[in-house]
Amino acid sequence: MVEEEEGSNDIGCGCATTSWLRVAWLQQGCTCNRRKTGQRCAQLLQRRTAAIRSDRPLLVVFNSLLVVIKTVGREILLRL
Q: N vs C: which end of the chain shows fewer Cβ within 10 Å?
């Protein structure tokens, strides 16, 4: 795995990306040594970013429901 330097968004293959997407980027085996490949990698990154952002509200709702279930469960146990 390529380590990124402090303050750098370059993961070593010539494509700038944010560190929170580094794992998804490396799993694709992206080797951006050509312009065409680099463009494909950039498109893939944009699609993955959009997918992560679209799933986030669902995750928030799911976690909120878990908190409600946990709270209600505690109240029921306290009444017993």
A: C
